[in-house]
Amino acid sequence: EGATLDMSNAWGMNAGSINVSTNGINLNTAGAAATIAGGELTQTGGTINLATSLDSLRFTAPFTATGGAIVSNGLVIFDAEGIVGPSADFQMTGSAASIVVTNGNVLSVTNGDFDLGANGDDVGNVTTIGNGASLFVNMDFDSGTGDVMDHRIELNGGQLDVSNSDAGFAGTDTMWHLSGGVLNANSGFCLVSGDDLIVSGAGDDHVDA
Question: How far apart are CA 31 and CA 52, in angstroms?
Fold first, then answer.
């Protein structure tokens, strides 16, 4: 719980694993997030693993993944610039997998089969984008679980930019769907950009501003 790995210089990970466990003192409670701080981390291999919904990891160091895997059942907080390239494997799994991009920071994910909404739980799966922050996502919306965004998105004065990388989805590569999810624009100037947003579904979808 709350452990910090602070490297004074830039460093890399090309094998092995970083296992994040942040269970609280009491049974079935979440403790403080673990932190990777200091110099920039470049991941070219290996696995960063958040095995349970109680686990959380905060990056206060810049982070770039060009390979390897990030497997998250919990919460990943980007308190610095984050870049996840197309050859890295960012897996959001389970009903609590969530992302926070804090105020003024930028996260870019171009791993095509990335599923931002994980299980599509609009209570447990939450994407939060802070004031002046941006999340750029390039997803293959015809790759199965990533066909729609069906979770909760909280824009707190930030930007969500979504691009569809699959020309076969609905006959076009210029649209994405919010289906069964919630998009809240809570405060400040909020922006949804990129390809066209189509809101569809069975009546649970809504965009609040």
Answer: 12
Give 61's contacts (C-beta < 8 A, 6+ positions apart). Answer: 7, 36, 37, 38, 39, 40, 41, 80
Please give the Cα distance from 79 to 107 (Å, whole number): 10
pLDDT of residue 150: 73
Tokens, residue 204: 């649970």
Q: Decide if 66 contacts 89 (C-beta within 8 A).
A: no
Q: Are strands 56-59 and 34-38 parallel, antiparallel or unpaired?
A: parallel
What is each CA distance from 52 to 25, 59, 92, 119, 156, in whole angstroms?
A: 15, 18, 11, 14, 26
Write down the pTM of the prediction. Answer: 0.86
Mean per-residue pLDDT, 151-174: 73
Token pair, residue 171, equals 């006959």
Burial (Cβ within 10 Å: 0-12, 13-18, ≥19) of residue 208: exposed
